[in-house]
Amino acid sequence: MIRELPTRRTQRLLVIWMQFSVLFLTLSLHAGCTSTGLQALYTPAAGQMTDARTDSTGAWSLASTRWNGTFLDLNGAPSNPSEISVENARTLDFHPNGTSFYIVGRSSENIVTYTLAVPWDVGSATATSSFDLSGIVGSRNQGSVAHGLWFRKDTGRSFFVFNRTEVFRFDTDTPWDVAGARLAGYADVSDVVRRGHDIDLHPDGTVLYVDDRGKGAVHQFRMDEAWDLSTLAFEVSLDISEQEKAVRGLEFRRDGRRFFVMDTSRREVLEYEVPEAWSVRGAVYRGAFSVAGQAGNPRSVTWKPDGRCFYVTDTSDGAVYQYEVTGGC
Length: 329
Known about the structure:
CATH superfamily of the largest domain: TolB, C-terminal domain
CATH architecture of the largest domain: 6 Propeller
Low-confidence stretches: 1-40, 49-54
Number of helices: 1
Strand content: 35-45%
Shape: globular
Radius of gyration: 23 Å
Mean pLDDT: 88
Distance between the termini: 67 Å
Structural class: mainly beta
């Protein structure tokens, strides 16, 4: 009998240890550990267990996204040898082949062009030129507080800048060269927008979308003549106030079936699905991806056209962070 006591005690300890191991494994799985050992950063909407992606390739999936360690110090010596100032960086937009991007400096009142040695890899970017916005954007109703930027992808000869409640169109003689850009259109949307930041456009130039932090909404406008801001007219607004706290970024998926907004306060990318492509009417919230581990003050979200990675501008660090969907950029 005396010899059996240690055996029974050992058995009890073994059972307790096994129970603890099972509990630990269960908690780890529920925490959503990724292959990198980091906690999963995607939070589905209530009642939605996955991101319900419709892209069979897995692209555009926030649930399968991670930071790949790539970032760009916008004002660092290697990336900015000419010391071109880009202060209080806001939205950026890419050339379709990924060899350059353009970013708004709100406080420096400019658009800075960066050239990438490796397409779509912001870590390989170098600042090459700057376009002054102060004389044109700063002379209107809102002063110079530019945030939104969108380039016409089919020609590269036009780009649009959003300035709180104002939209400016600029045209260029040389595709994708902003140096000689000239004002080609203007619209004031203050009758609808209270405090807007970013914009997106339908690829055919007939629809404009504006996020609005002041109203907690995304607004949709139509242009009766493609790309012509003088024909701009309000269509519909989507109330996103139940999810957003401070929206400052907007982009549609290339098929128009989903759109993404950046929430600066939540430090998350919010995802919405629309019943009709390219219309915000009836959009449904699907979930959010946190960028808080990298960006202290995120100000935009810009996707690669194939949905394999996206980019977040951070004003706190003066940086651009690159995130990739499973499979890489």
